[in-house]
């Protein structure tokens, strides 16, 4: 049978997932097609998009209607004839509605892939969230990020037997291999290149936008620096707030804004750090940090992604109460930096966490879900 996965863009971290799923389904005699759009606007600014030689690439079209930005993906001719079409759950993706309405008639079965709800929604009962709940039930199968997604779908009345939880992950094995190949000499060279002088280094890695709370992070970092004189901060990532981040960091030569970095480059930077600092929305970065043995310090921010469930409070990281309190966040960082034994114990627990959430396990669960959806 033929399975078509439609995505607005393909990010670097998703490449190994699709490669593994394709191979697993090919072993069962099935064809897996990936149809992806070219990044535009803010997505292009993040500079984290990738391509695969076997994928079909289309030119998405942004459409403004009633003050809203919607997306048209010209994929209908590419999914026609597929036995199962999988699309990301997004209100703005217009083609989803045609596929969902036409499933079983003009198209094959349709599955949704996503969170189930917008974890960053300020109003969970907004018109947009009510619309999302309505269409979340109009599909043949669901591929949910974590058990949080499944609980949400069950509350909507979606059948449990048509939900696959794949436990969203990154390629932890590849990150670990890259980390193992990094020598102390190489790290010393990187420190000189950056101009690092301190040994107590924190790092942020991720897209730079409002929900990551970079302004809060820099304010808290100033408080840490006042009590830990050799504290320095690395900020790695791109996005719409990159220029703003550079401006905020400019008065502080010990804050190094390095832009987007990937692969070995990113891993080397993370190896230099002792803590992963992310006071805003936590997503898959929790696994990036765990692989490198970096305890993550976040806050009780209301808009975390479902992957926050992977963080073990006091074990692999910390969720600091009162997300508006820079002093409380800074104190948590200071306390850990001053307690090497506790920091080392948390680093070891983080590494063990990463061994249980792998891209291979994710791809295997997803592929089994695809087979179940085809049989249903």
Keywords:
single chain; 376 residues; alpha/beta; Rossmann fold; 7-stranded parallel β-sheet; 6-stranded parallel β-sheet; 15 helices
Compact summary:
The protein is α/β, with parallel strands linked by helices.
Q: Topology, please?
A:
Layout: E1 2-7, H1 15-27, E2 31-37, H2 41-46, E3 56-58, E4 61-65, E5 68-72, H3 76-79, E6 84-88, H4 94-102, E7 109-114, H5 127-136, E8 141-144, H6 147-155, E9 163-165, H7 172-180, H8 184-194, E10 200-205, H9 214-227, E11 231-236, H10 242-249, E12 255-259, H11 263-272, E13 275-277, H12 285-291, E14 296-299, E15 317-320, H13 326-337, H14 340-356, H15 359-375
Parallel strand pairs: 1-2, 1-6, 2-3, 6-7, 7-8, 8-9, 10-11, 10-13, 11-12, 13-14, 14-15
Antiparallel strand pairs: 4-5
Helix pairs in contact: 1-15, 8-11, 9-13, 12-14
